[in-house]
Amino acid sequence: MRWRGVPLDVLLAVSGVALDLFTTAHAGDTTYLPVEANLPMGLLAGLPMGFVRSRPVPVTLYLAALLVITDQLGSYTSNTAQILLCVAVGVAGFRSGRRGTVVAAAAAIAATAVNIADPGIALTVNSWMYSVLLPVVPAVLGAYLRGSAGPLEERDVTPDALLAAGGVAITVLSTWTTWHSGSQPVWVVGLLAVVGGLSLGVARRLPGLVLLGQGVLLVCADTYLNEAVNTCVILTLISVGVFAMRVASAAWLVAAYAAGCMLTAIAVVGEGTEVTPFRVGVLMMLVATPIAIGRYLGMRQAAAAAERLRAEEAARAAVAQVRADQLAERERIARDVHDIVAHHVGAMVLRASAARYTAPDGPVADALSDIRETGHQVLQDLRDLLDLLREPERQPHLLADPTDVVRESAERMAAAGLVVDLHLDPATDQAPLTARASAARIVQEGLTNVLKHAGPGTRVSVSVAPEGEGLSVEIRNGPPPTVIERLPSSGRGLAGMRERVRALGGTLSAGPDGEGGWLLAASLPARSAT
């Protein structure tokens, strides 16, 4: 589940108000504010947290001002404002740019310095260091989380948010009644409780650092605030479990287990505690449980990642197999086409060659020579097609210059009866070879269609000219000179031309010209579309 939008903002605002009510529950009247003002002050401190995700810098500036005001009024809400100010600075570091983070941190540093200094007492070097480090640490942490926080593959931060929320709930609900009983200021204890809980939000990305921090917090609580020791033990065991989930090294697991046993022993063993084998075994089992759970979850995550990797490899292998099958089928089809068509065309060429030597000179001999040359060209094209189907990545071999192909096509169609008017711009030789080759094929197909559908005697105008870095081709024919019987057509010629032009990223149009004729126009760019 992903938390988004208004519900999370409402939860943040309610949590801010609740935190202030917890910290001021035992507070009475102050010099300037009666006890009845605790609720309005809690609303002033907590409700702006509902806007901290969308406007972290303004909220930080507001809380900094509120901290200064409440500190001067002597209100206990200053403790809440100090805690929420550090949270807002961390959010600003996560969601804002460098400039916004610097502004938010500077305001927080100034407000914290005012809160720490007593009236009439100058700030010392230690106080300044504390005032600077307190807001800078969450700002740096937020900025770190905004970047690549760790080697985790998944981008979902929901588990991190749940860990942080659970940690804060545990620390605040179990220790807030004792924040006034220690020697430290209330806001210091409350801030440590909130930071200790929030640190679990980065435990998956920084397991070693969080475990170390929880250990330090546990030792400090055992020395200065015994009422919070049990809570710190829970946080330490959770961080041990997360560490075991993220780190698979046996040596590091043993080190984490030893550290967990040592820290737990420091917390539960006092001066009058009797150490027995049973109690030692219980303590060791207590620390071993989160490690076992963490390793189980880590192994499941590793198994899921391995399964995803196998699935990806299987998908790639399947695609490669399909590709190989397609190539094999292409090669088989190419062989069949070559065997069938080449046999008949070869027989036609042989017969035309034999007839040419026996026929007298004249139109019949010229026609037989043309059939023989065309047949040889068809056989060569078939061989090139077979090679291309066997190796689709291979560039097709051009037997002749595309300009010569255009001229030859015009001459051949003129010999077949068309009246061809060819306009071939000399600058077309500077166009890319792919565009010129496609233009030659379009001219061949276009003239063939004119002869097929309009018949001999039709006047045709062919124009090939530069267009930008590519070429433009235009084939325009007039109306048929006589009524002819239209030959059947599959329409594949025009579809093939469209596909060829589309492959280059160009356009092709074909249709009546409004004067009884037909117009075929193509635009061929220099580079293919991507």
UniProtKB/TrEMBL annotation:
SUPFAM superfamilies: ATPase domain of HSP90 chaperone/DNA topoisomerase II/histidine kinase (SSF55874). Residues 439-517 form the Histidine kinase/HSP90-like ATPase domain. CDD domains: HATPase_UhpB-NarQ-NarX-like. The keyword Phosphoprotein applies. The chain crosses the membrane at residues 101-122, 128-145, 157-179, 185-203, 224-244, 250-268, 280-298. It catalyses: ATP + protein L-histidine = ADP + protein N-phospho-L-histidine. The keyword Transmembrane applies. Keywords: ATP-binding, Kinase, Membrane, Nucleotide-binding, Phosphoprotein, Transferase, Transmembrane, Transmembrane helix, Two-component regulatory system. Residues 329-392 form the Signal transduction histidine kinase subgroup 3 dimerisation and phosphoacceptor domain. InterPro entries: HATPase_C_sf, HATPase_dom, Sensor_HK_TwoCompSys, Sig_transdc_His_kin_sub3_dim/P. Its EC number is 2.7.13.3. GO terms for molecular function: kinase activity. PANTHER family: NITRATE/NITRITE SENSOR PROTEIN NARX-RELATED, NITRATE_NITRITE SENSOR PROTEIN NARQ. This is histidine kinase.
